[in-house]
Amino acid sequence: MLIKTEAIVIRTSDYGESNKVLTVYTKDFGKLGMMARGAKKTKSRLSSVSQLFTHAHFLIQKGSGLGSLSQGEIINTFRGIKQDIIKTAYAAYMVELLDKVTDEHKPSPALFEFLSLSLTYLEEDIDPDVLKAIFEMKMLRLAGIGPQVDRCVLCGRKEGDFSFSISEGGFLCGQCRFSDERAVALSSQTARLLNLFYHIDLSRLGNVSVKKETKEMIAQILTTYIDEYSGIRLKSKRFLDQIQAFE
């Protein structure tokens, strides 16, 4: 059976001397795996369309096993990402995280659009740390392990000064703060941004200016939270950390 769908390449691996195995996230069918025969050959018609991050229309031969890529028509190569090692590091982290938290054959057009827009914004120089935080929040929600960031996780209080508790899974108000001695005190801006990043419609992001120390605090909180609740270990995260260390 031949299917045609819009998709973004989120993982590639070599198979034999000339083939590639691709994982793509499609608009119509969710995550799919397929063989791209001959894609490692420079002159192959599948060479360019089988590159990581490539957004294209794919024609796929589906059977009982791994599908086979018949042809592709490129929509966007995200060249601006691929030519920038820092943007590449952020994009690689995003697509690997999405790959880890999604199952095959579970369609979500909204998630596809979110991925496409995230890469588009990254290429257009929207703050990568902001995009990364929003992406992480979306993936945590998708995995069913999102933190409570709009009220105290214990008493439900919605106003006041908050701390973030990894062990309790979200915000603690001033009265409940002492239930976790390791809870991290948050500035009002940091608490507001965590809530914003969790709930925002990415298409309405606009220009967001965040202080470096605030971004670092949010990154530390989300990294620790992901490590604690997801059990996910990403090769791309190590690469991203190394890149950021030299910025």
From TrEMBL:
UniProt similarity note: Belongs to the RecO family.
InterPro entries: ARFGAP/RecO, DNA_rep/recomb_RecO_N, NA-bd_OB-fold, RecO, RecO_C
Pfam families for the chain: RecO_C, RecO_N
SUPFAM superfamilies given in the database record: ArfGap/RecO-like zinc finger, Nucleic acid-binding proteins
Gene3D superfamilies: Nucleic acid-binding proteins, Recombination protein O, C-terminal domain
UniProtKB keywords: DNA damage, DNA recombination, DNA repair
Domain called DNA replication/recombination mediator RecO N-terminal: residue spans: 1-78
Species, as recorded: Pseudalkalibacillus berkeleyi
The protein's name in its UniProt record: DNA repair protein RecO
Stored HAMAP family: RecO
Gene: recO
Main function: Involved in DNA repair and RecF pathway recombination.
